[in-house]
Amino acid sequence: MERLSLEKELKGNSYPGRGIVLGRSADGRHAVAAYFIMGRSENSRNRVFVEEGDGIRTQAFDPSKLVDPSLIIYAPVRVLGNKTIVTNGDQTDTIYEMMDRQQTFEQALRTREFEPDAPNYTPRISGIMHVENGGYNYAMSILKSNCGRTDSCCRYTFAYENPAAGEGHFIHTYKGDGNPLPSFEGEPKPISIEGDIDSFAAKVWESLNEENKVALFVRYIEIATGKHETRIVNKLQK
């Protein structure tokens, strides 16, 4: 399958919503993760990413303007041993806690479904990276409403073993802007990953819609050692 340009995918969509990119750096040495959030409402835009342990958490930039934290305040990234979990909601905690009890990524997500934010029914997107003994693989998941039904959840998991250098996959919540917001369709998009952590982060941030982008997290994990570098960009703190 032909790799797409992540830059073009982002520039061509004013509102992909929340997005996850997982893959391998062009030099083959690093496992790569990126997670971004966007917002249309004041409540959604009033957020920043802050580091918490080895992961991150969303936080209200101005606490006095926070209206409803239920679907916007969560830990998008947590680390469990040699596994890095990246999601667009509090299912991060579900995955972390159940995998810590020897359950699988898929078993954990069997206990969750799409978000209860009618009429959008935002999909829950999740990813997990496994870096161990010089090896690397990752998986991505989407839980989405079956054609807008509240009683039917479609569950898809995609696993990628030993990704090639420069290879990645991109999944996001919405096909584009709209009312209601149309859910992502199909499998994660194959994309190219180029550059070091700073150039990659800059390219992603600059490609996101200026009005709607809120925050970006990027992590490069050295596959040989497990050591990682992180970059966080917050629109309200630039």
Task: Describe what this molecule looks like in 3D.
The model has no long low-confidence stretch (mean pLDDT 97). The protein is mainly beta. Strand 1 and strand 2 (30-38) form a beta hairpin. It contains 5 helices and 13 strands. The radius of gyration is 16 Å and the shape is globular. The chain has a single domain, classed as Glutamine Phosphoribosylpyrophosphate, subunit 1, domain 1. The longest helix has 11 residues, at 197-207. The strands form 3 sheets. It has a 6-stranded antiparallel β-sheet, with helices on one face. A 5-stranded antiparallel β-sheet has the order 5-6-7-8-9.
What is the secondary structure topology, with strand pairs?
Elements: H1 6-11, E1 19-24, E2 30-38, H2 42-45, E3 47-52, E4 55-60, E5 77-80, E6 83-87, H3 91-99, H4 105-109, E7 124-132, E8 135-145, E9 153-161, E10 167-172, E11 189-192, H5 197-207, E12 213-222, E13 228-234
Antiparallel strand pairs: 1-2, 1-10, 2-12, 3-4, 5-6, 6-7, 7-8, 8-9, 10-11, 12-13
